[in-house]
Amino acid sequence: AGLTVRHLLDLTAGYEPQGEGTVSDSYAGWALTRPLAADPGTTWSYDEPLYKVLSTLVRGVDDRGMLGAARDELFRPLGIAGAARRWPVDRWGDAEGAAGLRMTARELLTLGELYRQPHVQAALAEA
User: For the stretch 80-96, what's the b/e string if a residue is b when 16 or more beta carbons lie within 10 angstroms of its beta carbon?
Assistant: First the structure.
């Protein structure tokens, strides 16, 4: 009940990464039924399935899904919308949140320059 989107983003959800979940209609459903190894927010553990959960959540609130939202709200304003065409999707049309986004060196540099901006760094520090 205490699990938040922030826990999914910062990999502190507390799930047992190698734990077995219950068979579900979706990968995200399976991932959320795995046993907890710790209370959410208390420990960090690399847990790739959490990014599929995030992708599924985004699709639940935005018909564009994570791929479309990233393309329209991040990549296009930065002039790198082509990167979205190289991001693999699963059979439900959700972006592979943990991996697979292929970017050119110039696109990656553009994204990196965004994070170097003082106002972005300040916002990240407050988050």
Answer: beebbeebeeeeeebbb
Burial pattern 54-73, b for ≥16 Cβ within 10 A else e, equals bbbebbeeeeebbbbbbbee
101 token code pair: 């986004």
Q: What share of the chain is helix, strand, coil (3-state, %, to 5)?
A: 50, 5, 45
- Are 96 and 87 contacting, i.e. CB atoms less than 8 angstroms apart? yes
pLDDT surpasses 80 at 93:
no
Across the strands, what pairs with 46?
Answer: none
- In whole angstroms, what is the distance from residue 119 CA to residue 111 CA? 15
Query: Which bin fits 24, alpha (ψ -120 to 50), beta or left (φ > 0)?
Result: beta
Q: In whole angstroms, what is the distance from residue 99 CA to residue 114 CA?
A: 20
User: Which among 41, 61, 57 is positioned nearest to 1, based on CA atoms?
Assistant: 41
pLDDT value of residue 7? 94
Contact 71, 84 (CB under 8 A): yes
* pTM listed for this prediction: 0.76
